[in-house]
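Notes taken during the Thursday session

The instructor put the following on the board and asked us to keep it in front of us for the whole hour. The protein is CYTH-like domain-containing protein. We were told not to look anything up and to reason only from what is written here. First, the residues (206 in total):
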Amino acid sequence: MEVEVKLRLPDSTAHQKLTTLLSPYRTKTHFQQNLFFDTNPKNTLSKHSSTLRLRFYNMDTHATLTLKSKPKITNGISQAQELEEPIDPTIARTISLDPTQFATLVKESKILQKVESEYGVVWDEMVCLGGFKNVRFVYEWNGLKLEVDESLFDFGVSYEIECECDDPQEAQVMIEEMLRSNAIRFSYSKVSKFGVFRSGKLPEFE
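Then, after some discussion, the predicted structure tokens were revealed:
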């Protein structure tokens, strides 16, 4: 189970203010591309409240295959069942161009075995839904790993803070106190980045 604090920032100004504030704690920066897959026309994964994703990092230096299921976001805390595996980025690129090639990896991938056996996915029906790019700044701050995202969709840019941890309630209090004390506006995320992508529009900032 993946449990994260997820807080939205209103705009690039708030994002710049936060990243400047946290700059002494930055440990790395990731340039990511996220691509999502489902069957056409059955939408098999969506009907099981699941998402299959290929993520490419830093000019294809590495890649991951991820299955997320049954996501739920309540008061800025996100929960989802998650399985993730590394995948050769060259193979991942080939699959992104021809998603039916997922079938060639079933024997070596527990994720794809689950998708096939539990969801009944037909690989010949698999298509790429598209995706978005993301710039992720990673910080080690007060014992927490903070990830500050700038997500670039075809229809706009969104900004978000994520923090995966064992005690999300305590982490949320710490993060919110830091934001308020530095006059950085925020709101609770109500939908995942995949949900934003599928909606085709940025959610209103509340």
